[in-house]
Write a structure and sequence with these properties.
With about 180 residues, the protein is α+β, with helices and mostly antiparallel strands. It has one domain (about 15-185). Helices cover about 30% and strands about 30% of the residues. An 8-stranded antiparallel beta sheet has the order 1-2-3-4-8-7-6-5. A hairpin with a 2-residue loop joins strand 6 (about 135-145) and strand 7 (about 145-150). The longest helix is centred in the last third of the chain and has 16 residues, at about 170-185.
Length: about 180
Amino acid sequence: MRLAASLLLLAAATAQVPLSLGGATPGIGIAQLRAILHGNLHCAAPRAPLLPADETDIDCMRPGDLVRSGLYAGTAGGQPIHFVYRFRHGRLGSIVVLGIKPEAYAAVLAALVEKFGTPEKIGNVPVKPLSSNAIEVPMDTWTRGGNQLGLRRVAALHQGAGLWLVAQWYMEDSRRSEQLSRQGK
């Protein structure tokens, strides 16, 4: 009985933790992110095709953390990029972590479950990695406060596992931008 009550309290506590990666949450500005990351940030117009880009988008990158942790699997488009923070209209819309070793998936999942609780959605999604045919891979998703955190064992656009945090407003805005760009062609 006591164990069940403790587990319920733990589940309630983790359900209240806002979704974040490295202390950053969607909606903050570039200055706030620079403060969180102690200035270790390089920003420019988007180059990585992670999500449809808008003319107001700015990608900021933070290299090195995955290499130092031993979780890094490779490069994205020949560039050793590890965290990509995409801003739209001055607000952080998404964080994508590139190149996590597929064999580190279980450890990353365990850390996310410890911090955020059990994913709301657990399932398989079709992915066509750059180096192979389409396959079904596990994907775990947490949704909280208008944000979505996802972890996938194999990413489609880069080597390794996929981890991202994205704001709902950003996903909706990206879909609209993509539709408008298709209509303009």
